[in-house]
Hints:
The complex is a heterodimer of chains A (452) and B (165).
Chain A: E1 4-6, H1 16-39, H2 56-65, E2 74-78, E3 84-88, H3 89-92, H4 94-110, H5 114-129, H6 133-141, E4 147-155, E5 167-175, H7 177-190, E6 194-195, E7 209-221, H8 222-226, E8 230-233, H9 237-243, E9 245-250, H10 251-269, H11 272-275, H12 280-298, H13 306-310, H14 314-335, H15 341-364, H16 369-384, E10 388-391, E11 394-397, H17 399-418, H18 422-432, H19 436-439, H20 442-445
Chain B: E1 7-9, H1 11-33, E2 40-41, E3 44-45, H2 47-71, E4 73-75, E5 92-97, E6 100-107, E7 118-120, H3 124-129, E8 137-141, E9 146-155
Helix pairs in contact in B: 1-2
Amino acid sequence: MRGIKKFKIDTKELSQKEKVLFKKLISAAELIAPLYLKQKNNKHPGANFYPYDATKEEIERAARKNPAILSSYTFVERDKAGKLIAIPYHLKFKKELKPISEFLEEAADLSEDKNFSLYLRSRAKSLLDDNYEKSEIIWLKTNSFKFGFIIGPIERYLDRLFFKKCAYQSWIGFLDEEKTKEAEKIKNAILTGRRKILSGSEKAEISKLGIRVDRTAIFSGLIADFMFTGTNLPNDVKLMEKYGSKLTIFESSLESKFKGDHLPIFKAVFDKKFQKSYSEEDLYKGSLRCILLHEISHSLIRYRDAEERLKDLFPVFDELYAYILGIKNCGILFLKGVMNQKELEAILIMHICRNFTWWLDSIKNPDVKHYAIGAVIAQNFFLKEGAMREKGGISWPNFTKLFICINELSRLLEYYLAVGSYEEAKEFIGEYSSFNVFKRFSPQLTKISKLK
Amino acid sequence: MTEEKKFYLTEEGLERIRKEYENLKELRLAKTRRESPEILYSEDLNPEYLAFREDINFLGSKIIEFENIIKNAELIRPPKKEKQNIIDLGATVLVEINGEIDEFRLVGTLEADPSNRKISNESPIGRALLGKRVGEIVVIKTPIVNHACKITKIKYNNNNKAIRL
């Protein structure tokens, strides 16, 4: 089914009632994919959210008179007179959203967890009126649901024009308590430090950070398309400041990405002798930690005015800096004895492989370009500073130099997110965004399906 | 004669080890008091007996490990007042490192728990900070990460408990 990715997971531990509940949630998630596909159109930077003939300036002008034009939950269309008007998602998709909402109500009736029922009912209502705040607050206030479940319009990556419109997605998973405990330890070890803040910046303080590692059963909508291995929500900085944020690591998609992308890339781009020093287990752990540290960092790098200041460039800096700060924090964890040198090296290697992955993903799906641009900036920066050596399509990292680079890149990215202007940010991207750094590895990457 | 390895522990750390040691001994006693499964099942070794032996052996080795720790435990005590401006085991320190302000207590490896601000004296940062004073800038050098670390506060608690600076 298009827009849906299912993973094999064991449901033996679920009671009979929970199994029925789980099926209801799966049914709801499956119905979200067609809505996402109606929003997606990577031939246009504004996807299907805006009329193709409308310019950025025309949309901005219309939004000054009618703020609903740039609301996260509206389509922009032309009326008979050619004027831009906003159509709320819940009206545009009224017929399609009704059965989804009903599945959530039915699942809520089956749940023995009162808070989860409350969340499902609230979410069922949100889908029908586009008022998501109440259900997000309920979700943020509780961290112990057996089911990890999200449904609704959430991420804004499809809107490459303004980074405003949310695309529909859903996921369902079960809590992996053991892995969640391990992740919690790393999070707590990182959060003991307090970063110095650039003067003049509007740093948002995120008071609470919930964490869970899930065995995911299904991705639907945007998340199936992007195959995220982790996420940190909500995206609204005001909600984050007031109620904290919650990160989820998706074990099932991580395993799939690791086997399908990260590991084959490692084997294709690194020197054979160098490869022998790292087992598959070391590298998988490195990839898991890479995404965990990335998601933790998202809560540490929010500035109240960054989205307005950096506009469509914001996600490039937000995603790249989350990776870079995550790795920078690993340095401190290593010095504190939380991880050993080999583990730290595996994180760095997996970061490089992830950079290649985003580039490969962006060839087939231009909607992930924010990630791909971030990846190419990092890769060019490493190469320019001598942290990576290359010969005949094979590379060797210099870990000591990589760490120096990561510190320097971290300082620059912090500046752009904290106080940098749109023009400065654009210039910085221009300096480091040549994709040749990846393209010259194309011959040995052809085995990886996306280049075929 | 080789010197036996010392285990540096706070009072509460040693107390916890003693309790765990007693629990392990009780557990072994309870297991051995119960009737041991038959060695043979038909003509083969009884899997229940093998599991029983495995449990007893595991408990035995843990008990020996804990006995060794208790025998070689060295209590971490606050140094004399005139030496409390120097970092030693048990000190809570406030440092500036790589653009961050961080605070933690230096403990022996057995008690290390970085998620609760307890850092091992054998970690790279622990080794580098031992013996240093307030105001000193220590360069922590490792094959992969090198950071300067400025010591801004050192404090000991005479009740030997963790404190916040």
